[in-house]
Structures are given as C-alpha cells and as structure tokens.
Specification:
This protein has about 260 residues and is α+β, with helices and mostly antiparallel strands. Helices cover about 50% and strands about 15% of the residues. The chain contains 13 helices and five strands. Helix 1 runs antiparallel to helix 2 and helix 10 packs across helix 12.
Amino acid sequence: MMRIPDHTFRKVVRLLGETAAAGKSHAEKKRFLMEGLCDLIGAECWVWALGAQVEAKKPQVFVGFLHGGFDEERFVRLLKAVEHPDMALIASRFGERIQETGAHTTMRRHEIDMDGKVARSPVGALWEEANIGPLMLSAHPLEENSVSMIGLYRGLDAEPFSELEKQVAHIILSEVPWLHLSGWPEDRGAQVPKLYPRERIVLNLLLDGMSRKEIAHQMSISENTVSGYAKGVYRHFGVSSHVELMRRFLHADAG
C-alpha cells in the first residue's frame, strides 16, 4: 500500500471530522463529504446511489441518486449509460470483487474494464456524450444484494485517477459506514429492479426533483410518454403523487 503524505492524511482526518458535524440531514452530510473528497482527489463530478441486486453477471440497478458537478443534460446521459444492458457485463468484475470480499471495494476504470469492453459497447458512446473519461467506483455492502454505491468522474481528456487518489478515496469512503447505512428506503430498493429500464430512469429523475416537462425535454420524448412511465412507477410503489413517491424513498433522510 502506498504511503499517504502527512499533509494529505491530515486533510483526510479533517474532512471526516467536519462531515460528522456538517448539516442536519444525511443528504447534507453526504454532499459535504463528496465535495471535500472531490477537492482532495481532483474529481469533477460524483454520484451516490443505492444499488440493488448486485450479483455477478446480473444487472446492477440504482436508485435515489445524490449528485454533484452534473448539469441536467449530463446527468440524464449518465443514467442512460447506467441503464444500458451492457453495463452488467462491463461492471461484472467490480460486482464479483464485492461478492468475494464482502467488504468496502474501490476500483478505477481500467481495473474494472481490463478487457476494454466499454470501447466495444454502445455504453462507450453514452459515456462520451456524458463527458465521462476516467472514473472510480466505490461500494459499501449493506445487506442481501444491496450496496451503497459512489461514482467519481473526470472529463474525457483528463488524466486517470492515480493509485494514491484511489487510496485516499477508499479510506474516506470506507470510514463512514453510518452514512452508507442511512437515507435509504426501508426495503433497500428491493422493488426497483422489477421496473423497466426507462421507468427506472424516470423514477430517478422524479426523485431528483425534475418535473415531467423537464424529463420529457431531457429524454427527448413527449410529456404523455413521461406521464405513462410515471403512472407505472406510482402504481408499482402504491403511491398516487410525486410527493408520496419522494416520501417513499427519502423519508429516512428527513433530518
């Protein structure tokens, strides 16, 4: 393991301490931590989501995204890449590592995609549209095929994350188990994988606070189509409004 310079280690300790005192809600603390981490390792943007059904060679399904550094258009493009069916194969090495160790896991893009699968998949084009080059994934196992998943990203022309930057991210993100466990729905998203991919995208954009009109614009579909997806989502979770849906997923983060 590479030795972390003393001045960097002090910044790590300071960030962890300040995170505990930051804000009132879990979301505020997560956002504070991620903004500080991005400053430390030079990441341009990030996401933090609940991953359900993480098994080797099976799709990884995500819900409840917190994010920073993305505008609406770029975030929607990221979601499209995440929901592409090829992602199960591309991320299989990461999922296998989590299952093998049962511990917090952090990997960089070239460690996850050693065989260059992204370049041979439509996912590569989707990542390019989202201006995603170097990336790092970090996951904390929760229970029964669910994980607290974090993605850190740089633009297409940026330098890859270094081993030291990976080490710093891993230490910080593995030292906040209380944050990984908090802010998720009680069932840990168990019902989310049963939705169709486009319904999951609409679900995540609704949880992000976007209106149906905004979602239609970003997904290049009609408002009627978005309404159809939204009704399917409401029916699936037994709610009748956007507010009830937000409460269903975010009630645990009420402050």
